Amino acid sequence: MKHLNQLDSEINGQELFFIPTMGSLHKGHLSLIENAKTFGLKTIVSIFVNPKQFNDSSDYEKYPRDLERDFQSLNQLGVDILFTPNEDYIYGDNLVNVVDSGNIGKKYEGNSRPGHFDGVLTVVNRLFELVKPKKAIFGKKDAQQLFLIKEYVKNEKLDIEIHEGDIIRDSNGLALSSRNQLLSNNGLVTAGGLKRHLDTLKEIYIETGSINESVNKTLNTCQDSKLDIDYLHILDKDTFDEATEETRNAIIIIAGKVEGIRLIDNIDFKVEL
Ligand code: PAF
């Protein structure tokens, strides 16, 4: 595997499948890479902990980093290029196009973490400019991020095919995330409650068809003082606005804190007529 801090002319002209990450790789990332490899293009993984998407500097400092272990995993998987730019290489020329994530970028996760999605879209756009990939893949766990990236690529008419990687869960149902390493064993068990909230809400919603009633019932039935729920919303997956009677592709998104660590999750499903 080639390890580059800057992208030289060597990569020009190659058809690349790009897997952007912030490192501290887990099985969720590895499944994105395995998925990407099935397309037969050269694979390039970036590791860059993007300061612009952290609205809280202590969250940025705490974010887990383990380049040595990541390098071994990527090498074993047969990734072609590992790209680990520094901040100056990404943002240093002051010509970076700062992307506004718009109305949806300010809701839900964007409401709790102001500026987060502007930071995500800004770095993704910059990485796309540098890597010039043919295809790129993002995980479904970050559903709002995935929605906004797909919208951005469509609106800007970027010639990049966006792929989606399934959520990988542990035996408790907890969606894998680099942040899970910051939890104790008890914390991991508590965090499994996020998925249970999602399943309960889906069931009640399908039964009653009423969003407010379903959300309130769910929050009342699953009370665990160690799981601090920030939001729970039923959305239309095609617009990312609140679901309506017309919604056929629904997604339920949840965010909460366990032991001070912020976690997000979601499930999507079809609403039958
Ligand atoms: O999902 C992530 O790991 C990050 O938000 C991304 C897409 C690599 C941008 O920094």
Key terms for this structure?
six-stranded parallel sheet, alpha/beta, 9 strands, 273 residues, globular, binds pantoate, three-stranded antiparallel sheet
Mind explaining what this structure looks like?
- It is a single chain.
- It is built from eleven helices and nine strands.
- The protein has about 270 residues and is an alpha/beta fold.
- The chain has a six-stranded parallel β-sheet, with helices on both faces. Strands 7-8-9 form a three-stranded antiparallel β-sheet.
- Helix 7 packs across helix 8 (about 145-155) and helix 10 runs antiparallel to helix 11 (about 210-220).
- The chain binds pantoate.
- Pantoate binds near residues 20, 22, 142 and 145.
- Pantoate binds next to strand 2 and helix 7.
How are the elements arranged and paired?
Elements: E1 2-4, E2 16-21, H1 27-37, E3 42-47, H2 57-62, H3 67-77, E4 81-83, H4 87-91, H5 102-105, H6 109-112, H7 116-131, E5 135-139, H8 143-155, E6 161-165, H9 185-191, H10 193-208, H11 211-221, E7 227-236, E8 249-258, E9 261-270
Parallel strand pairs: 1-4, 2-3, 2-5, 3-4, 5-6
Antiparallel strand pairs: 7-8, 8-9
The protein binds pantoate.
